[in-house]
Structures are given as structure tokens and as C-alpha cells.
Amino acid sequence: MKPTSDILADILDEVRPLIGQGKVADYIPALAQVPNDKLGIAVYTNQGDVITAGDAHEGFSIQSISKALSLTLAMNLYQPDELWRRVGKEPSGQAFNSLIQLEMEKGIPRNPFINAGAIVIADLLQSRLSAPRQRLLEFARQLSGEAQLVYDKVVAASEMMHSDRNAAIAYLMRAFGNFDNEVLPVLNNYFHACALKMSCVELAKMFSYLANKGVSVHTGEPVITATQSKQINALLATCGLYDGAGEFAYRVGMPGKSGVGGGIIAIVPGEMTIAVWSPELDPCGNSLAGTRALELLAQRIGRSIF
Amino acid sequence: MKPTSDILADILDEVRPLIGQGKVADYIPALAQVPNDKLGIAVYTNQGDVITAGDAHEGFSIQSISKALSLTLAMNLYQPDELWRRVGKEPSGQAFNSLIQLEMEKGIPRNPFINAGAIVIADLLQSRLSAPRQRLLEFARQLSGEAQLVYDKVVAASEMMHSDRNAAIAYLMRAFGNFDNEVLPVLNNYFHACALKMSCVELAKMFSYLANKGVSVHTGEPVITATQSKQINALLATCGLYDGAGEFAYRVGMPGKSGVGGGIIAIVPGEMTIAVWSPELDPCGNSLAGTRALELLAQRIGRSIF
Amino acid sequence: MKPTSDILADILDEVRPLIGQGKVADYIPALAQVPNDKLGIAVYTNQGDVITAGDAHEGFSIQSISKALSLTLAMNLYQPDELWRRVGKEPSGQAFNSLIQLEMEKGIPRNPFINAGAIVIADLLQSRLSAPRQRLLEFARQLSGEAQLVYDKVVAASEMMHSDRNAAIAYLMRAFGNFDNEVLPVLNNYFHACALKMSCVELAKMFSYLANKGVSVHTGEPVITATQSKQINALLATCGLYDGAGEFAYRVGMPGKSGVGGGIIAIVPGEMTIAVWSPELDPCGNSLAGTRALELLAQRIGRSIF
Amino acid sequence: MKPTSDILADILDEVRPLIGQGKVADYIPALAQVPNDKLGIAVYTNQGDVITAGDAHEGFSIQSISKALSLTLAMNLYQPDELWRRVGKEPSGQAFNSLIQLEMEKGIPRNPFINAGAIVIADLLQSRLSAPRQRLLEFARQLSGEAQLVYDKVVAASEMMHSDRNAAIAYLMRAFGNFDNEVLPVLNNYFHACALKMSCVELAKMFSYLANKGVSVHTGEPVITATQSKQINALLATCGLYDGAGEFAYRVGMPGKSGVGGGIIAIVPGEMTIAVWSPELDPCGNSLAGTRALELLAQRIGRSIF
Known about the structure:
The structure is a homotetramer of 306-residue chains.
Chain A: H1 5-15, E1 23-24, H2 29-32, E2 40-45, E3 50-54, E4 60-61, H3 66-77, H4 80-84, H5 100-104, H6 115-128, H7 132-144, H8 153-161, H9 164-175, H10 183-194, E5 197-198, H11 200-206, H12 226-239, H13 245-251, E6 256-258, E7 263-268, E8 272-277, E9 280-281, H14 288-301
Antiparallel strand pairs in A: 1-9, 2-3, 2-8, 4-5, 6-7, 7-8
Helix pairs in contact in A: 1-14, 3-6, 6-9, 6-10, 7-10, 7-11, 8-10, 12-13
Subunit structure (chains A, B, C, D): Homotetramer.
EC number (chains A, B, C, D): 3.5.1.2
GO molecular function, one term (chains A, B, C, D): glutaminase activity
């Protein structure tokens, strides 16, 4: 069955009662102020159709979803062996910002989707790009077809004000020789990427290359190779949902990436890209209603990679 | 493209030079004696075709591959909430027999495919079956269509002689209230399951239900529901390859389960079940040449869940 | 100033209000039944004087205090290098029954006073003594001058019924090659040692050799050398109070050993041996009022090793 | 027996063959250049006598020995409860610069003598002193009676160039709310304290208050109270030698503090302060020949707190 706006609206109605059972991210004031009852979903098919329901056109802070975009950019700039000796490909089995594992494993983060790994990716972008922050923004604008896309400066500044743990992570990696640039500028870029403000529709369009063998459905241009696209999906499936990747695979059955802003993207390879948004999070830091919406969608349209 | 015996033979030729670069499991003498140059592969399609190359008909110790079978049996005996409060669904991010995480997480193993998780499954089977060891053997015989299937008693006894770490795991879980029966009989059953002796062909047939929405291709009978089949595949994809699940997903792109006997099964949902065997292991404990063979097969026949 | 029975009685009066603020050990029923308001103290001087107050003549379960006795016996049976390659001499920095550190440090316990270390000592005694349980009892009888001393069989049996964590510890050490005998008999001996029932007076007499250069004040016989006596005191000072050794040194300033039965022994080298008993424990597992009583005694009589 | 210069010279002769079996600290170039064959010892008695042998008058980088001085200064500025809720009093059971324990224990360092604890102390000094770096230097000059005492600017700068791990520690504590000032200025002060250049004679004089109930033997002025002096000695005995405190207590039997510059101070309460220097370190980071010299001295003069 194909997704329709009726199906999407039904799903949102079914998950809406979950609102109130999760917890909006509050580690920075800018995120804590987002109304907890926002709820939106967008599907972007490989044919270019956009199907939506709820607050699908309203921008929110994409947070860690940006890690999939940054990785894509890094895979364009580095050879695989250059990239993968700096960061691993394995699930972490721990909270997303733990230093314990990072110390035990000598400063090599487990994967590019935990904070440590994304900070290494930001360090890699810093080393090869003259203006990495601007470049990432242009990349996002181009892929989403939304030329007005901006960083939310208030969110970025708020993150920077609460960056102690991420600074600890970066300095620890530098102590192990796995960080090449100055810490603060790299963190600042990293936080700007997290502070990209995008809607479900924009997100689904931006990541359409992951459902389409590396070719952006929106632009028709190759972003990465088909093989790289599969590789990113594999990493998303095993590591994309913090310490809830197994549960997400079990329930939803699609590669995905979540952010503490309450957004999640999910990929049906060969068919469509999905983005959902509901700010309240479960204990793993993934959108509570968003995850459930994706689980229902997978059931209704009968899609799963498994 | 469909797999043919020529393709499979070509792949085995291509991976054979890897033999000598891995290490045969030697923690028990019975495994250490297996010749390191054994190499076999079998594909069992959902249409019932068997395609093979190399030592595909020779039996070997399936070891941890049995954990997928035991889980299937337990999912038949227990309601989901009964089962999943005893064991988690998340990758461990650690070596397969670590006690550190188990203590930190209060005796609840991360997933059913690490040792601790499989021992909990064995404890669950013990509680609900009058003769769990015999029942598992019959289950394996029925699904593989091989009535002569036996436990390798020498391997099982050798495991039992070297069971201290697994006994420590079981006693620790019992200290946390997550183990209900006597330790030694449960371990003995667990080791017997690991000591099932099967060939690639038999393995591919036995697990065909995972590629066929829960229905055994060989018997035509439902083993589990289609949803349960997806769930097991999801767990295999995120947790099935010890601490190498991410790398396996990245390179091979199929749900799989490995054993230290050098076997790996891999699933192409909706199409086929694959089993490969080469005794030498990589540092994560997965068959070195076997993983490479699956990677090549995925490329040649153009299959991946991603 | 010398300790007098008046000083001791005053101190007990001063600490009595603490009763109700700690928690009687309840991991086995036999310990949980001990009245929480028991309170006693005994001083045994190197001149052979006995000074007491409160319930100093009533027997209680000495629990981990026995670890100092077992170590003394083992130091009589083994050369230093034989002994100290099986167990370390460093504080653990962790709860007394943690497996995490034991796994990280390859089955070598940090010191003889955490459970793992005491279990290794029990394994060593088992290897060199034909009847280790009887031998330890005779050793305790001889040193305390109390021929009627017995193991509390109810406590020992209750410990054995709740031995899962200690069994896990023993099996893990065996997996690392640091345990030579069968697990259960050794644990049984270990639990019997913990179940020695002794009064404060008997304890102070038994350990008088630690205050008297290795010579038992009661028997006048050398138990260990003067150097060994200093070594045991050094280990008690750094490792004798579980994860509260630093606090105890800071407040009391004497080598000591506590047990979850609420007893503590403390040594003033060259002068006296002290034993105190109050069943309620602080969060580290040390007697709450007992520690405070020792702190006050150290202040009143002006004794400290620092 | 009293220490004499002959006894000290004999001891140095006896330990000299150990030179070559340890390893000079090389994590910063400035330390790596120190000749490995330097060897000196000084005893400063509570009567004001100075007894020396070898290179006892040559200055070296005192490194972590400064942590005992900084703690003394902080104990003058803060009430006990203000101080000890920021840092613990327990041995760490881990390498001196580990972040693992710090994260598990929510940013509260185990004791003031591991790096994290000393950095908290530096943060406390920063909060209450207008010029903490100058104040500490004056404190050291006054106590040692050496008005020319200086920070080795080359060492301090070299430390600052290799400060990534310590920056990670400070940022992690700040993330847990246990660090109040800007990270880099505090680290800079901390490194300057480590870079104090002092001889064995100067060190023994500076710390004489720890052997003399808080009163500086050199100046006759109280530095801290007698109780505080005992408390610092207690912390030195349990935590002063990194992860070798138990071994040091077992062999030497005196409270002590070591530095990776190869210096160690040791206290005989009521009698004397000792300082020894030999740059090569054992695997725990303590001076190899220095520890052995103190062990021999303790035997020859028959002193031990145990």
C-alpha cells in the first residue's frame, strides 16, 4: 500500500495521546521552550511526491539528524580508509555522550552518530574545507531545495553555552591524537549543524539520496555513490538511534536517525524518505510519538527492510 | 542476478587466499582441531532450490548460530513482555562474553545473541519445557529436514570443561534475580545447543523461515509469525555479529548470525537464506573468509537490505 | 591518656543516638534479625588488660573481619611471592563485591579484603590444608583463648543460600586461571569463616598480635613476624574498610577491618587492639556508630598513626 | 636509630643499581631531558636538623608533590564541608588521570591527589584568591625558607602544550557542575604548581608541618591545626602514591606523596620529614629507586606508622 495523507493523518491521531508521556529536551533553554504538542510527518517518494500531515511544514532544530548530513559531506572529502581509522562503525551500547567507552577505546569513537563521532567528523570537515560551516549550510540548502535555510543562532549560541561535556569529549580525543584542530571552533561548527532549522518536508527532501541509491530525488544529481548510500543506511540501522537502535529496528524496521529536537528521519531504500517530528523524547532521547508514528506507518504500508 | 553454483564457486576461489590470515577458535580443544582450510557455502531459495559450493555438505559446530534457533523456540513459548523483560534488544558494544556491562545493567543482558542473553534464553526454555535439550534437537531436525542431526557430545563436554566464564555470567544473573533454574543443567543445555553439528546446507534450510515471513520453506509450516520473523531479522542485523555487527551491515548488508565454529548464516528477506563456513575467525570472532564471501555474494547478486 | 571503662561508656552514650540512622545488613535473613541497638566496645592492651563497655561480651557474626585472620593464616603457609601474585595490595576504589574491576584486571583481585581477594585466600588455604575449615576455627580459638568458639551454622547456611554473586566472582577468577579448587567447597569454607561468632573481647584478644609486632598478647607466642604484622596493618589501613578506607583513616587514624555484622577491629600499633560492635551500617557497609565510637576514642586517648 | 648522612649515603649506594630499570617521564619534553642518574635524599628532623646524601640540593620539578601543598592552602581557605563536597577522600583504584571513574561518580574526584582532584583544588583556590599562582609560590617560599624559589616556566609551558587530557577532566567536571571558573586559567595555575622547582632539602623543610602537628619546624609558625595535619597524612597514606599506595604502605609504612619528576616526600609523624629524588619511575608513576630508598631507610632506622 502507498502512503496517503489520510493514512498519515490517521497515524498522527493515533499517536497524539502519547504526548505528555515523554519529556522535551531541556539541557539548553532554547530547546526547552518548544511546545510539546507539535506533531508532523512528511513522506517524500523517489518519484518526487510529497505527502504530509500535521506540522510538517514547520521548522524545528534538527539536532543530531545533522550527523547523517555531515557524514555524507565527509564521505565526499575523504577516502574510506582515511575516514574509518578516525571513527568506527559499531553500535556503542551506551548513552550517546559517554566518555567511558571513548577512554577505553583510546579516543576512537564507536560510530559517526554518537557525539564523539560527530565531533571527529566536524574536525575532519574543518581540516579540508575553508569555510565548513557555510559549506554545510549550502549543502543542506541545495539538497532540500530550500535556499532560505538558516542556522538558528539562538540555539547554536545556547548549545555553545552548555558545551562542557562535548568540550571534554573533544579534548579527550585530542589527548589520544584523534583531533587535529582547535577545539572551540570545531565545536562551534558542530553546534551550528545541530542548530539547522528545518521542517519535516525539508528533511525528507534533503535525505532523499539515501532512499535513491545516492541520487538526490529533488535535484537529480548524485550526492554519493549507490554503495556509499547503502553504507550510510547500514550505519543508520545499527547506530542511528542512540542506545535505542535495536528497539527501533525491531519495531520500525527502517534505517533512521533521530535528534533531541524530536525529529526522526527514516529510509525505505528504493522507495521513499520519511521525516517525523514530535518534541517529547523517550528515555533513550528519541521522539516518543515520532517512533510510534513510524512503527504504525511501517505496519500500514507494509514496509520494512527485514 | 540469481546466485548460481558457478558464482558461489568463483567467490570461494576469491576468498580462499584469506585462509591463513585468521585464527581458528582454540578455547576448547575440540574446536581447535578443525582443519583451517574448510570452506563451504550454500544458498537455499524461498522456492526450495539449493545451490552450493565447496564443503557445503560437511557438518561443523554451529556454536552461536544456535542462539537464533533458541530464540525462535523461546518466542513460541513466551509472550513478548515475558521474554523482553528478561533480555534486551540493543547491541552490546562490547566483547560477547563481558561481565562488565552485565553488572552495570543489573543482570539484564543486552540482547539474546551475546552469551549472557543466550543463557537467559536457555533458562527460559528450561522453565517451560520438560526436556529442553531434546526439544531443541527435534526442532532443528524438523526445520532442517535432517532426522539424523545430533549434538557433538565431544564438543559439548569440552565446552562444559571450560565453562567457568559462562558459569560466572549465569551466577551473576542469578544474583540479580534474572535466572530461575540451577546453573549447571542450564549451561549444559546451552553448550549442547552450541554443539549442534550441521552443514551449510542444513543451516540454510533450517533458517529458511527467516527469509520467508516465518514459514519454513522446507516443511511449508509456519514456525513463527511474519512479524516475529522481521523482529528476529532486526535483532540479527543490529546484534548478530558480536562486536562486528556494524561492519557486517556496512559490508554485507544482510541480517546474519555467526558462530566461533566459523559458520555464518545470512538472510535476504523474501528471497533466500545463505550459510557459509570457514573456520578461521577475525578479531571479533566472526569467520574471516566467510564474511568476505558474503560481501562478495551481496555485490554479485546485487542484494542488500539497505 | 589511657582508655578506661568510664571513657568507653561515655563514648557509647555519645554514639547511641546514631542508632536508627544506619541500616542493618539484610542480604541474608540471619543477619537481618540481629537487634539494631546492640552496642559494645572492648580494648585489649599489649599488657593484657581488658577494658570494656556495653555489649562487649556478646557474640556476633564477625563476617569480613575474618578476612584479616584468613590472610594471617595464608601468610604462614605461603611465601610472599606465591601469595601476592594471586592477589594485589591496592585499594579497590569500588564496592566490595564488584565484578567489573575483577574482569578488567584479569581475575586478580585488588586486595585480600574485598570478597574476591578473600575468596582467593580461601582457595589458597584449601590447596595447602587438609581441613581448612577446622584449622581456621582452631586458629581463632587459640588466638582468642576461647575454646568454645564456633561457626554459626545458621548464618553459614544462609550465606550459602545467597551465594550467587560470590559464585560468579569465583568462577570468573577460575576463568582467568586464578582459582584452583572446586568453587562450592571453597565458598562454603569462606562463608563459615564469615560466620564465626565472636564478642568484642574475643576479637580484640584474637587480633592482639597486630598491635604487638606479631606476637599474641594472650598466648605470648609469635603468630607472624613483626614485619608481616606491619604489612597487614598497612593493608588494613589502605583497604580494610571497603570503599570507606580513606574516610576511616581521615577520621579514626588507625588500621582497621570491618564486617557487615557491624563489628570493626582497630589497631594502635605497639599499644592496644580495639573491637567495637553496632549492627547498623553506613552506605559503605561499615558500622555507623562503631566508626564514630572509634573516632571519639582516638580523640579522647590521643592515639593515631598519623 | 637516628638517620645519619652515612646511613643515607649507604642507602643511595644500595639503590643506585636500580637506575636503568625504570623510565623517566616523557609525556612532556622538559621532563624527558632530566638525566636519569640523579639521586638524592634529605631528612629534616623536627629538631631542625638537615641530613642529606647525593643530589639533595639540586632542584627538580616537584610535579604532583605540589598537590599536598595546594590542599594545605585550600584547607586554610575553606571549611571542611565546603571542601569535601567538591572532592572525596577515597583511593581511586585506577590510573591517576582516568576519566572513567570521574564520569561514573558524577564529576566528584575520588581524592585531592589524583589529577581531577587537584584540578578541583586549583579551581577552589582560583575562587577565593586574587592571585592564586603568586600566593602558592609565596606559601612555598615561606615554608621552605627559600625566597628564590621559582616556577620552571619551560616546564609549565610544556605542560600547557600537552594539557588535552587535563582539559578534558576539567570540562567534564564543569559539565557536572563541579568546576566554577574558566578552564584554561585554572589549568595554567595547576601546571605552574606542578612546575615548582625544588630540591630534596627544600621539600623536606616545606612539608615539615606534616611531621610536627601542623607547625612548620622551619618558621615555628602553625600552618594548619594538628588535626588537619593528621588528616592530610591519612589522605597521603591512602591516596598519595597514585595506584601504588597500598604497595608503598606495605613496603615503606609512611604517609607519602610522589611526583612524576621522580620526587617523593614521606612523613614520620612526630619525628621527621624525608624527601628523595630519582627520576626513573615504576609502572605506577612513582620513583623506582626513590621508593626503594625509603623502604631501606624505614628498615634501617626502624620507623613505620604500622
